[in-house]
């Protein structure tokens, strides 16, 4: 039996499972990347990086709970985390770009949030990677929700 021969409901479930799996994969890679930067490269995270970690790390644990067995309700719990983490990442990006004045930044002690620690290819920074990860996770979770409403 091929995928096209499966009933439409089963195909929707299979596609939704793949979307949640993709979101979990991105959350896991992001979590491991944050741990690598902090624990292996000894780069201290700023306050905004900590807030983004607070929203990303639970996603790596919550999303697989919705995969085995598959439960669409995982979107209800994961989507708010992804959206809030994405807002912190966007704020961090705007702070780095100079759009938000430095006197608004939450980092008053320790590592300044407006400091670029790593920059690849002249534009890829850690906050940009974080914003991309949260955006993709949010898009995949919304797509999962929309698949379920059909």
Topology:
Blueprint: H1 8-40, H2 47-65, H3 74-97, E1 119-120, E2 124-125, H4 126-148
Antiparallel strand pairs: 1-2
Helix pairs in contact: 1-2, 1-4, 2-3, 3-4
Please, could you describe this protein's structure?
The chain is an all-alpha fold. The chain is built from 4 helices and 2 strands. A two-stranded antiparallel sheet has the order 1-2. The radius of gyration is 18 Å and the shape is elongated. The model has no long low-confidence stretch (mean pLDDT 87).
Roughly what is the average pLDDT, rounded to an integer? 87
Helical amount: 55-70%
Strand content: under 5%
Total beta strands: 2
Estimated structural class:
mainly alpha
How do the SSEs run, as a string of H and E? Answer: HHHEEH
End-to-end CA span = 23 Å
Largest sheet: 2 strands, antiparallel
Q: What is the number of helices?
A: 4
Q: Would you identify the regions where 5 or more consecutive residues have pLDDT less than 50?
A: none
- Strand adjacency order, main sheet: 1-2
What key phrases describe this protein's structure?
elongated, 150 residues, two-stranded antiparallel sheet, 66% helix, mainly alpha, single chain, 4 helices
Entry summary:
This protein has four helices and two strands.
């Amino acid at each position: 039996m091929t995928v096209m021969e499966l009933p439409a409901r089963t195909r929707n479930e299979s596609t939704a499972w793949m979307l949640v799996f993709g979101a979990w994969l991105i959350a896991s890679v992001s979590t491991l990347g944050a741990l690598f930067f902090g624990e292996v490269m000894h780069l201290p995270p700023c306050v905004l990086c900590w807030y983004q970690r607070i929203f990303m790390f639970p996603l790596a644990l919550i999303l697989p709970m919705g995969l085995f067995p598959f439960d669409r309700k995982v979107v209800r719990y994961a989507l708010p985390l992804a959206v809030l983490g994405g807002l912190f990442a966007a704020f961090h990006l705007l702070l780095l770009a100079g759009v938000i004045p430095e006197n608004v930044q939450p980092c008053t002690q320790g590592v300044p949030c407006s400091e670029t620690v790593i920059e690849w290819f002249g534009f890829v920074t850690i906050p940009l990677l974080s914003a991309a990860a949260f955006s993709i996770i949010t898009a995949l979770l919304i797509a999962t929700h929309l698949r379920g409403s059909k």
